[in-house]
Design brief:
By secondary structure, the chain is of the alpha/beta class. The protein is built from 17 helices and 19 strands.
């Protein structure tokens, strides 16, 4: 893409793991009973047909990676594990008590933080406790995020025996200067060890997380990182754009100067270089920031148009109800969103009082639901349609008008019935979604709250 287009469209914008995005949820939040009622409604509509998804947030890390944007708690005291697991299981009990039948779990994902901060025994206690009150769908998929340096053979064996077949290892970049700057020393030998061991045990989908746009990162370091990745050939690769938001994430991302970051043009070179190398290795681009081999379920989901995006990122299958357990987790009933409180102490206190610990959320109106579907279509399939009257809304003509300049720039193909993004325009997918984002348009922020789109 040309330098001029990058400069023109490199603006602050959402990543669209939801619509409305979190900053534009209703200020008054969501009534507790509204969340409960929509969760029950969604469960009743979908439990027997597609099942539900669970995201479990395990927030503890032994050290701070300064590039990280997650909600986490830094500690070396592993005595925090059991009380936290006990609280998560109590929260799950509170949800199960709402439903008139056993939940059927289609997807379960352990995120963090660092899930492998927890001992294998405690992770087994957590998952077995969840499964005591639930069944699994025939096509269930269990996955976990892992820090290669803290992942042991026992971790991998224990989770495999319980039913996990997918894992994701955080790599970021193999260049030592980059690693030192972001406080994430990640030897290639350790990544190789856990990747190969996962394969030996029978994991069918192994993912590596790589990040472009990090401080001191260069084209040469991207080439070196992907050359090393070539040796391990993971099934999936998340090739993320680093989101520099120190005004939100505070001390960690203030550990280096913005002058240490690649410029917008340099960052595009990093992305295009990485993307080209990944294509040469046989990876197909999936949605935004993701790549997969054709043998992986993520690629197959893109091909059959079942790819979905939610607060867990891209998933190979959709469930209407996603329950988030743990501090700061976000739940999605399709009709509403609800986020848990953000500190461990408050989370444990509220759950131990017998209450689901949400502190904010959003009840979607009819317009929200239509816009949400359009943005999902664009983020997952790079196209959307308004041929069906159910996908039309009063301000659709204005949204189309906002896309005319992008059409002239070759970033979108418009027709009377819908739109498509040409392959070369995929890096601008967030910009296309912003044309539909009525809540952002009506309430344009006066301060910067999002990372740059390019």
């Amino acid at each position: 893409m040309s330098k001029d287009l990058i400069q023109k469209y490199n603006i602050a914008g959402p990543r669209y793991t939801s619509y409305p995005t979190v900053p534009f949820w209703d200020e008054q939040g969501i009534e507790y009973n509204d969340w409960i009622n929509t969760a029950k409604k969604s469960f009743k509509e979908s439990n027997q047909t597609e099942g539900i998804s669970l995201y479990i947030h395990l927030p503890f890390c032994e050290s701070l990676c300064t590039f990280c944007g997650c909600h986490k708690r830094i500690t070396k005291q592993h005595g925090v594990e059991e009380p936290y697991i006990d609280t998560v299981l109590k929260e799950w009990d509170l949800y199960c008590s709402l439903f008139d039948e056993k939940p059927r779990i289609k997807e379960l994902h352990l995120g963090g933080g660092t899930p492998t901060f927890f001992s294998p025994q405690n992770l087994a206690q957590l998952i077995n406790g969840i499964l005591k009150k639930a069944d699994k769908t025939p096509d269930f998929e269990f996955s976990f995020e892992a820090h290669p340096n803290s992942t042991t053979k026992e971790h991998l064996e224990t989770l495999y025996k319980i039913g996990f077949r997918r894992n994701s290892f955080g790599v970021q970049d193999y260049n030592i200067k980059v690693q030192q700057t972001i406080n994430r020393i990640q030897p290639f030998e350790k990544v190789k060890e856990v990747t190969e061991l996962s394969r030996e045990l029978g994991y069918t989908s192994i993912s590596h997380d790589l990040v472009f746009g990090l401080p001191h990162q260069t084209k040469e370091s991207i080439i070196d990182t992907i050359t090393k990745t070539k040796e391990l050939k993971p099934d999936r690769i998340a090739f993320y754009s680093y989101a520099h938001v120190p005004w939100i994430k505070g001390v960690g991302q203030r550990g280096y100067d913005e002058n240490d970051l690649p410029s917008a043009e340099e960052k595009r070179v990093l992305y295009e270089t990485g993307k080209s190398l990944l294509h040469e290795l046989g990876y197909e681009e999936i949605g935004m920031d993701h790549f997969a081999l054709k043998t992986d379920s993520m690629y197959q989901a893109m091909e059959n148009k079942s790819l979905h995006r939610n607060f867990m990122g891209y998933t190979a299958g959709k469930t209407k109800l996603m329950i988030g357990l743990g501090m700061s987790s976000i739940s999605d009933s399709w009709y509403s969103f609800a986020q848990n409180v953000k500190t461990v102490e408050e989370y444990q206190e509220i759950v131990n009082q017998g209450k689901i610990p949400i502190f904010r959320g959003h009840l979607l109106n009819e317009e929200d639901l239509i816009i949400r579907q359009h943005i999902l279509n664009i983020m997952c399939h790079f196209e959307t349609s308004w041929e069906n009257d159910k996908m039309k809304f009063p301000e659709l003509p204005e949204c189309i008008d906002r896309l005319r300049e992008m059409e002239q720039d070759g970033l979108v193909i418009l027709s009377e019935k819908g739109l498509k993004l040409p392959d070369q325009a995929r890096p601008f997918v967030r910009n296309v979604c912003m044309a539909f984002d009525l809540r952002l348009i009506r309430n344009k922020p006066t301060t910067r709250i999002f990372s740059m789109t390019i």
